[in-house]
Amino acid sequence: MAVFTHISLKEAQNFCAKYPALKTPTTITAIETGTDNSNYKLTSQDGTHYILTIFEGRLDVTHLPPIFDFVALINEKVITAPKPYTDQNGQALNMIQGKTAILVEFIQGHSVNTPTSSQAKKMGALLAKMHKTLETMPLDVPINPLSIQNCRDIYNQCLDWADDFEPDVINTAFDRALAMHHDLPTGAIHGDAFPDNVFFNDDEISGIIDFYFACHDSYIYDMTVALNAWCFDTTGTPINTNLRGFLDGYLAHRTLTENEAIAIDDIGRSAALQIFSTRLRNIKKGTKDTVYNAKNPHPYLNIIKFYNQTGLKDML
């Protein structure tokens, strides 16, 4: 699903030749996870790995330089993140098959498909540390392109699929989200801290990847995007031990403001709407048969219902 541009080993070798610090890759492996860019793992004869990412058009590549600054800051202050390589001219970005591409460091570790409560707690703690660091270090990342209005526009473009997903619930959730007004701490956020973008070694987080959705938004939005991904099962049913662990991990390192505590369920619902609408868009780009299994929107419908009925406020 994540390989839209198919390249040969020879093409990868020619691309890598522009980067003097890199050894020539001898194998290329497509990375099938993800939905927006094409990704390959390149390996040299001595076992050195690199990641080649080809940007497929959703991301404005002019936003990448400040995102690289974000990655460098996270590397320096918080945890390992994949730094980009630069070519003989000091440029990180080059073209392959007419598309912008980048080579970044390979991060050791493995992602988890079903996070435990302990892993959720460690993720909550890591995200809080990132937010505490970023509060005092403003970065010129773009405003979140997935505003709630933009997400509703995406949803409205997919109405031929909407009847499968309780449109009354979704439209009411959008109405509530568009009507809310909260004064919240904001700054640079990761924006996509799903379990497949966080690596573990010996049950400790070893690194975080895929900063290409980094943007300017509220920290509690970033928190609930991650919480929704780490603390609900594949049907969108809450895993209470993970919820408790994630919140404990986060709150141990960063105290929510009064406004954040008041807004947490509104923001959590909006974060769920974002993922719901983009997954619905991906179905429209493909077919139900090819997309439902990997990125089914239905669990996020159930997460929206969770915020309507129960929410997080009483757990703070």
Primary descriptors:
Aminoglycoside 3'-phosphotransferase, Chain: A, domain 2; 316 residues; alpha+beta; two-stranded antiparallel ribbon; Phosphorylase Kinase, domain 1; globular; five-stranded antiparallel sheet
In short:
The chain has 316 residues and is α+β, with helices and mostly antiparallel strands. It contains eleven helices and nine strands.
Q: What's the arrangement of secondary structure elements?
A:
Blueprint: H1 9-16, E1 25-31, E2 38-44, E3 49-54, H2 64-77, E4 93-96, E5 99-105, H3 117-135, H4 148-156, H5 159-162, H6 167-179, E6 186-189, E7 198-201, E8 204-208, E9 215-218, H7 219-230, H8 240-251, H9 258-285, H10 288-295, H11 298-309
Antiparallel strand pairs: 1-2, 2-3, 3-5, 4-5, 6-9, 7-8
Helix pairs in contact: 3-7, 3-8, 4-9, 6-9, 7-9, 9-10, 9-11
Describe this structure in words.
The chain folds into 2 domains: 9-105, Phosphorylase Kinase, domain 1 (2-Layer Sandwich), CATH 3.30.200; 117-315, Aminoglycoside 3'-phosphotransferase, Chain: A, domain 2, CATH 3.90.1200.10. Strand 1 (25-31) and strand 2 form a beta hairpin. Helix 7 crosses helix 9 (258-285). The protein is built from 11 helices and 9 strands. The chain starts with 8 loop residues before the first helix and ends in a 7-residue tail after the last helix. The chain has 316 residues and is an alpha+beta fold. Helix content is 44%, strand content 15%. The strands form 3 sheets. Strands 1-2-3-5-4 form a 5-stranded antiparallel beta sheet, covered by helices on one side. The chain has a two-stranded antiparallel ribbon with strand order 6-9. It has helices at 9-16, 64-77, 117-135, 148-156, 159-162, 167-179, 219-230, 240-251, 258-285, 288-295, 298-309, and strands at 25-31, 38-44, 49-54, 93-96, 99-105, 186-189, 198-201, 204-208, 215-218. The longest helix has 28 residues, at 258-285.
